[in-house]
Amino acid sequence: MLASSFRDCKAWSAEGLPLSTSSNEACKLYDAILTQYVKWQNDENVGGFEGSISAIQAADPNFVMGHVISTGLELVSTASSARLNQRLAGAVRRTVELADSQALSPRERLHVTAVEHFSHGRFSKACDVWEDILVDHPTDMLALKFSHDGYFYTGAKAQLRDSVARVLPYWKPHMPFFSYLKGMYSFGLMETHFYDQALKVAMEGLAMTPEDAWSVHSVAHVYEMKAEVDKGLKFMESREKDWQASDVLASHNYWHWALYFIEKGQYEAALQIYDSQVIRRCKATGSMLDTVDASSMLCRLEMEGVCVKDRWQEVLQVTRPHTDDHVTLFNDVHFLMASLGAKDGGTSRRLLEGLQELAKEPGDNQQHHLAASLGVSMVEAMTEYDQGNYNRTVELLYPLRYRLVEMGGSDAQGRLHQQHIRKWERDAMRPNSPLTGRLMQRALALHD
Fold first, then answer.
1. How many CB atoms lie within 10 A of CB 93?
2. Residues 17 and 110 reside in one and the same domain
């Protein structure tokens, strides 16, 4: 029996977001899935994401928004390519066919259009459609969350911020998820370098909902960007019991915690978090967020001269099956880190060649267009760097250094690539950073 707090058909209609189904069970399950998405948490009471998605399809197999949320979530996870995965491509087609056969609201039709765009790699077009929904329905949390993810994948930082800012005035404190908007808005403020405002807004969210892992995540970013390492360490430790329950985001928050230790040069402490939390969760979930974190953390440690032993082999077991996916360039470069780190030349070559092929005929896939102008050079540069060809690495990367943001991800995630080529600029941006000091010393030693 679903909790009475989940909204039924009548409750959704009362909020101006009617759902085209007569099944109260389906409406409540839609709310249950949406709640887990907002909270970054598998709720065992509803069978987690997997159980509640199975249940919604059983409750009403023709419920279009049930298909939109379940297929949409699989797409935005970027763990599977609709280009290669026939089951996922079929799920998108089924959603479109169901929509064509029913009398839906304009809002629901737009949701179907957005999911279809996203499935074909048209991320920006999908975001435009989600924004169209939010113009008339600013409290549609699914449109807001999906667009938030879409902007993240395209590096559209101002849009990430403003999308939430535009709808905030329409939300009231009594509404479900109200406090979670604070964390989402804070993250956009942080990504556009309004650090003090971002911290203030995230803390407002945490005052209302201490277990909001995304607000915690935003604060972690602020302390890192300001190189306030000790404040960051204290904050993450003091809040651990609150945010670790959000199992979908927990590994990423542990990753942020470990970055502070790397910044301080306390590599054993960072490795302890990696071994006990990051790789353990990565292997258990196979989630792309957990996987890119594992890859980037080992890469950062190696750039600091730390021997990570055979840890790359474990990551490669997770990344190798995704070598041909090419859903996002951001994922691709992290898969490459794993194959280079594990000395698997065949997988590294396959990834590069696959990207080169898609770049020749990208169609309307935004990420494959980007592969032609940015991604292929990025992958080649990483390969050259791995082989010790540093001059060639710089030749390839230097012209791209201001375009790396287009690959998506946060400032904290993207800075790993910048470390290869922007040591001097990094110092100007983060003057208190111990890591910057070490990079500067290394760069100066090369010029002696």
1. 14
2. yes
Q: What is the pLDDT of residue 414?
A: 56
Same domain for 190 and 138: no
pLDDT at 442: 63
Q: Identify whether 443 is part of a domain.
A: no
pLDDT at 216: 98
> What are the CA-CA distances from residue 361 to residues 39, 365, 407 (Å)?
39, 9, 19
Does residue 446 form part of some domain?
A: no
Residue 14 included in any domain: yes
- Quote the CA–CA distance of 216 and 424 in Å, as a whole number: 30
Instruction: Compute the distance between CA of residue 205 and CA of residue 184 in angstroms, rounded to an integer.
Output: 10
**What is the Cα gyration radius of the chain?**
22
Residues 6+ apart with CB under 8 A from 447: none
Q: Which residue positions in the chain have pLDDT lower than 50?
A: 421, 423-428
Of the three residues 222, 243, 264, the one that is the final residue of a domain is 243
pTM above 0.70, yes or no: yes
pLDDT digits (tens, 9 = 90+) for 366-397: 999 999 999 999 999 999 999 999 899 999 99
Same domain assignment for residues 352 and 397: yes
In a domain, 126, yes or no: yes
Structural domain of 301: 246-309
> What is the C-alpha separation between 44 and 183, in angstroms, rounded?
24
